[in-house]
Design a protein that fits this description.
Elements lengths: L6 H22 L4 E4 L5 H6 L3 E3 L1 H10 L3 H10 L8 H10 L2 E5 L1 E2 L6 E2 L34 E5 H5 L5 H9 L13 E5 L5 H13 L3 E4 L11 H22 L5 H23 L10 H13 L4 H20 L10 E6 L7 H10 L2 E6 L12 H9 L7 H14 L4 E7 L3 H5 L1 H12 L3 E6 L9 H25 L1
Parallel strand pairs: 1-2, 1-7, 7-8, 9-10, 9-11, 11-12
Antiparallel strand pairs: 3-6, 4-5
Helix pairs in contact: 1-11, 1-12, 3-5, 4-5, 5-8, 9-14, 10-12, 13-18, 15-17
The protein binds iron/sulfur cluster.
Length: 481
């Protein structure tokens, strides 16, 4: 029987699909389409009715569709270093016109785009089916590698109209993240990290388009200091001025206020959903939050996103009343998952958790998008609080609060090769979690987008170690009770 999808989840999926479809349509109509970092104040672009795409969300989608490696490699072939964040590499390759595409079988008169999902046998250059050692047609529907090639959209667009152009356009991977329009401007806020600054400068240079930048200094203090808030506010004014020049429109205060109200509603509803993980057992799987993040990134300032999260909260309340959960197994242990998930390896991440009854009931990444504020200064302060821009003490306080409220038994830390600013301080954080909360921690190496940096055997061993440590702790607590 097909898995039932709740009304909230359906509504959330539609919101993201609409954001992508609207941007494609806007581009078709000759309107401006921008690309934005995920924590740029979206309220500004909303006030100008601009269509905006989010490369981090796009890269996560591409990675989850298992095209992260071919796109990362494409960026490396363009000269970008393998050490650069995988999201940046995917996005830079995309901005340069590179696309993951399906192979075309030209042996048929009109050409035929091979659908990797059907596992159609691979053919060699002579049109013969490639056989494996058992004499069976060689195919790898899981990794799909034999069927996925790299295309160049600029090269295709330069072709004369005809069957080659048609087929090659058709061969580009059909999912929405591989079909976003090229940008006309970029919006960058480095509250996330400074890789972002260089990434967006490069896009602006490659595509010869304007860059609107908001520089958020690192917070050494527990809360953003007033000088920083003044400095950032002045940049908001500057960004508004640049957007006026770009669009030829005057800044509409009313629209801005409306966008702020919607963004606050979305943030509050999103935080409400995140907080359902405090229930024991939880009415949802923590992995669900990762899936719903697309909405909070791409549609934070939209009424539809706020409404959809409201609906999702209703679904979860119903789960609590009925004693059900979206977690497909009984919850035995509760852990905090620290960091961004390995999108290309989500099933591999989930497998040993399921085998050991572990639910992820705390995440840092998801609630970090809950920007709630009442005025401009508070809005600026809210945008200063991203995981990589707060001091280590603030980061520890934040995480330990979530761990306590969400009653975790342990912490699983993703040492994410892509995200060096995040992973760098995790060893000290792990030490603090064990010292302050008494919970065991285990770390594993991986990557949010580049599957070459994940080792399943290492991950499984670390999860096993964490389970053993959680079990010993549980026995001790029981003996003391
Ligand atoms: S915060 Fe980490 S994952 Fe996000 S863009 Fe920066 S380096 Fe990449």
């Amino acid at each position: 029987m097909a898995k039932q999808v709740s009304p909230g989840v359906l509504a959330l999926r539609k919101v993201v699909d609409d954001v992508y479809a609207d941007a494609r349509e806007a581009k078709k109509q000759g309107k401006l389409v921008g690309w934005s970092s995920s924590k740029f104040p979206c309220e500004l672009a909303e006030a100008f009715d601009l269509n905006v795409m989010y490369p981090e969300n796009q890269a996560a989608g591409i990675a989850a569709q298992r095209d992260g490696e071919i796109m990362c490699q494409a960026a490396e072939d363009l000269g970008f270093d393998n050490d650069i964040c995988g999201y940046a590499r995917i996005s830079l390759a995309y901005a340069a016109g590179k696309r993951a595409a399906r192979k075309i079988d030209w042996s048929k008169e009109d050409g035929y785009v091979i659908n990797p999902a059907t596992g159609k046998p691979l053919k060699d250059e002579n049109g013969n089916v490639v056989l494996d050692e058992n004499g069976k047609p060689k195919k790898d529907p899981k990794t799909q590698t034999p069927y996925i090639v790299l295309e160049d959209i600029h090269e295709i667009e330069a072709l004369p109209e005809g069957r080659e152009k048609e087929r090659r356009l058709e061969s580009i991977q059909p999912y929405k993240q591989m079909r976003i329009p090229q940008p006309d401007f970029v919006l960058c806020c480095n509250n996330i990290c400074n890789c972002m600054t260089k990434w967006y400068e490069n896009i602006a240079r490659m595509c010869n388009i304007p860059l609107i930048m908001i520089d958020v200094p690192y917070n050494n203090t527990m809360d953003p200091n007033p000088e920083n808030v003044t400095y950032i506010r002045a940049q908001f004014d500057n960004a508004i001025h640049q957007l006026e020049e770009l669009t030829g429109k005057k800044f509409d205060e009313k629209k801005f206020e409306h966008a702020c109200a919607q963004a606050n509603r979305t943030a509050q509803n999103w935080l409400k959903v995140c907080n359902f993980l405090q229930y024991k057992p939880a009415p949802l799987s923590g992995f669900d939050l990762f899936n719903h993040m697309a909405d909070v990134v791409t549609a934070r300032g939209k009424k539809e996103a706020a409404d959809a999260f409201d609906l999702l909260a209703e679904d979860l309340e119903k789960n609590i009343k009925e004693g059900t959960s979206t977690l497909p197994f009984p919850e035995q242990y509760r852990v905090m998952f620290e960091g961004i998930p390995c999108w290309p390896k989500l099933p591999n991440l989930f497998k040993p958790l399921k085998a050991n009854g572990i639910n992820v009931t705390a995440v840092v990444y998801a609630p970090a998008f809950g920007f709630v504020y009442n005025n401009m200064d508070e809005m600026v302060s809210a945008y200063c609080k991203a995981p990589n821009s707060v001091s280590i003490e603030k980061g520890v306080e934040w995480r330990e609060g979530i761990c306590r409220e969400n009653k975790v038994d342990g912490v699983l830390v993703h040492y994410n090769r892509s995200c060096k600013p995040w992973s760098g301080y995790m060893a000290e954080m792990q030490r603090r979690f064990t010292a302050d909360l008494g919970v065991p921690c285990a770390g594993f190496d991986g990557d949010q987008a580049d599957p070459r940096n994940f080792n399943e055997a290492q991950y499984e061993t670390r999860v096993q170690g964490l389970v053993e440590a959680m079990q010993i702790r549980a026995e001790k607590l029981e003996a003391q009770a």
